[in-house]
Amino acid sequence: xxxxxxxxxxxxxxxxxxxxxxxxxxxxxxxxxxxxxxxxxxxxxxxxxxxxxxxxxxxxxxxxxxxxxxxxxxxxxxxxxxxxxxxxxxxxxxxxxxxxxxxxxxxxxxxxxxxxxxxxxxxxxxxxxxxxxxxxxxxxxxxxxxxxxxxxxxxxxxxxxxxxxxxxxxxxxxxxxxxxxxxxxxxxxxxxxxxxxxxxxxxxxxxxxxxxxxxxxxxxxxxxxxxxxxxxxxxxxxxxxxxxxxxxxxxxxxxxxxxxxxxxxxxxxxxxxxxxxxxxxxxxxxxxxxxxxxxxxxxxxxxxxxxxxxxxxxxxxxxxxxxxxxxxxxxxxxxxxxxxxxxxxxxxxxxxxxxxxxxxxxxx
Length: 364
Ligand code: NAD
What we know:
Blueprint: E1 12-18, H1 22-36, E2 41-44, H2 49-55, H3 61-69, E3 72-77, H4 92-102, E4 107-113, H5 126-129, E5 133-139, E6 151-154, E7 160-163, H6 170-185, E8 190-195, H7 201-214, E9 221-226, H8 227-236, E10 243-246, H9 248-261, E11 269-273, E12 279-283, H10 300-313, H11 317-332, E13 335-336, E14 346-347, H12 350-360
Helix pairs in contact: 1-10, 1-12, 6-7, 8-9, 10-11, 11-12
Bound molecules: nicotinamide-adenine-dinucleotide.
């Protein structure tokens, strides 16, 4: 999968601020991208509730058309309780699921990495989490979120019954397996595949195909773990892991759990890639309607998502490193948003955190 875009042509970036805190966090990341890439062409479009408000559709056609043409996409987040009464197809989250599926963004990369200065922000003991650096690779376009049949019907006992279908084809499993093995090769060469093969046939096949795929990667050590044990091990001894690969629903839950190891969900970036490494980059958290518009949001997950964009889609790892170092420096200077505050730190808002990281970009 490591096939990368040209670096010398002008890049087109599409930003999708979305809802809630989305616009404020994307604004911070955009400042940094403009400083690092003065030539980049940046367009913006609505998605989620903003898409519904603009066009009656959480993924307006104009937004999808722009996304298809862009080299990379940076998203904020979607969702707000005010849309909860809309029909399912019109709800903000459908816009996100549809763009992932329309662009075939099947590989979701969620690194959970703890900055040294945040070791006390984690709810776990420092010795358990210090130095943590794991990568969760989640399959994103299959599984129970997309499987048919699905719905709510009246069953033969005249009761309402809800049902969804967990489905994985071997091709879908093999292609996410290939991505995970290749990423493991760039790290410590240890891959743990997470399933529930003792109970669910779909994941029994998952395990079989992972073992078959491993034949192509003899230099990577493959292990397997049931999802319930993985959830436990992530809080007991998270540093035992290097790369984890899992399906859509297990990955959704485990990566949120992993976010708390890093201190706050506001610290966790993500990349969703297609087979050519074109990607949609977004924080792992939601739109946090409870703090939207109050300048309280932590923009670091979104800024780290921009770092992932440079690394995975734009083939500019040097810029990715500059961003990570600027974040590290800002945290070392003691600045914190409210969600990661600790004693003796200096509390700043979303906007100021963006400015501080920007200021540290080129300051050695
Ligand atoms: P959430 O992630 O939005 O918020 C959970 C908690 O974390 C809240 O207390 C929030 O204030 C806090 N939080 C989240 N991001 C933060 C940040 N950057 N800085 C500081 N604090 C932060 O999850 P939720 O409350 O379950 O969902 C709210 C909405 O977001 C819902 O509509 C949901 O569907 C949507 N959602 C969207 C995405 C996405 O766009 N990828 C993901 C998850 C949830």
